[in-house]
Amino acid sequence: MNRQRVAGATAAPRFEAEALAIAAIGPIDFTLAAGDCLGLAAPSGAGKTRLLRAMADLDAHAGSCRLDGHPAEVFSAPDWRRRVMFLPAESAWWFDTPRPHIRPDRLAARLAALDLDTRLLDQPIERISSGQRQRLALIRLLSYNPDVLLLDEPTANLDGPNIERVEALIDEYRQQNDACCIWVGHDRGQLERVATQHLVLDAAGKPTDTPCS
Ligand SMILES: Nc1ncnc2c1ncn2[C@@H]1O[C@H](COP(=O)(O)OP(=O)(O)OP(=O)(O)O)[C@@H](O)[C@H]1O
């Protein structure tokens, strides 16, 4: 599924982190080229979500992130967060139904790709299942055309066929948009399928070479 690079080819950095740390979590460093996906694994409570929030500049942190060579500081906060977009494990919704949250471009195709009925767009949020909400939140995120997807356990509520659909949609988006992603997950098999690079943290949030159990 992953895009293969030509051996010996060097790709320009698209999204980078240098000495990124929040509280005692990290520091971490990585460099991703267009189309790359970093699989981020760690025991529960190690700090994966907090690092994603630091990358999106949602919480105060140490170290820096760069997009296409430009540090986060040169972007306005809303512009950075639109380009480097965080998908929380549990989605938040502020209108009564999904439709007003989602830009219409490619909406029908993405709903079909994730096996979602268009009528869900006009259903009250509380009547939509957690797995349906998770897929709708991904479609909402993609509708804003981010350059970097910060995905916090994006298939946690899904069954096997829907996990495959989500993996395929994200892979297609990365390839068509030269986007990068950071994929937080606990399923090592999945991370091996979707990621082009891997970062494993120990229970204290420090990078390690030891595989996460
Ligand atoms: N805003 C915050 N301020 C201080 N500590 C926090 C904050 N948010 C979370 N924590 C704590 O930081 C630690 C890391 O939390 P985080 O949610 O990043 O873990 P995680 O690796 O994503 O866990 P899981 O795999 O269970 O989702 C936890 O001990 C959590 O209680």
Strand-pairing-aware structural class: alpha/beta
User: Which superfamily, in CATH terms, is the homologous superfamily?
Assistant: P-loop containing nucleotide triphosphate hydrolases
Number of domains: 1
The overall pLDDT average reads 94
Give the N-terminus to C-terminus distance in angstroms: 24 Å
CATH topology: the name is Rossmann fold
Beta-strand percent range? 15-25%
Q: What's the CATH C level?
A: Alpha Beta
Low-confidence stretches: 1-8
Compute the number of helices: 6
Associated small molecules: adenosine-5'-triphosphate
Percent range for helical residues?
Answer: 25-40%
List the helices and strands and how they pair.
Layout: E1 13-22, E2 25-33, E3 37-41, H1 48-55, E4 62-67, E5 70-71, H2 77-83, E6 84-87, H3 107-113, H4 130-143, E7 148-152, H5 160-177, E8 180-184, H6 188-194, E9 197-201, E10 207-208
Parallel strand pairs: 3-8, 3-9, 6-7, 7-8
Antiparallel strand pairs: 1-2, 1-4, 4-5, 9-10
Bound molecules: adenosine-5'-triphosphate.
Report on the architecture of this protein.
The chain starts with 12 loop residues before the first strand and ends in a 5-residue tail after the last strand. It is 29% helix and 25% strand. It has 213 residues and is of the alpha/beta class. Strands 6-7-8-3-9-10 form a 6-stranded mixed sheet, sandwiched between helices. The chain has helices at residues 48-55, 77-83, 107-113, 130-143, 160-177, 188-194, and strands at 13-22, 25-33, 37-41, 62-67, 70-71, 84-87, 148-152, 180-184, 197-201, 207-208. The chain has one domain (13-208): P-loop containing nucleotide triphosphate hydrolases (Rossmann fold, 3-Layer(aba) Sandwich). The chain is built from 6 helices and 10 strands, in the order βββαββαβααβαβαββ. The longest helix has 18 residues, at 160-177. Strand 7 (148-152), helix 5 (160-177) and strand 8 (180-184) form a beta-alpha-beta unit. Mean pLDDT is 94; it is low at 1-8. The site of adenosine-5'-triphosphate has 8 residues, from helix 1.
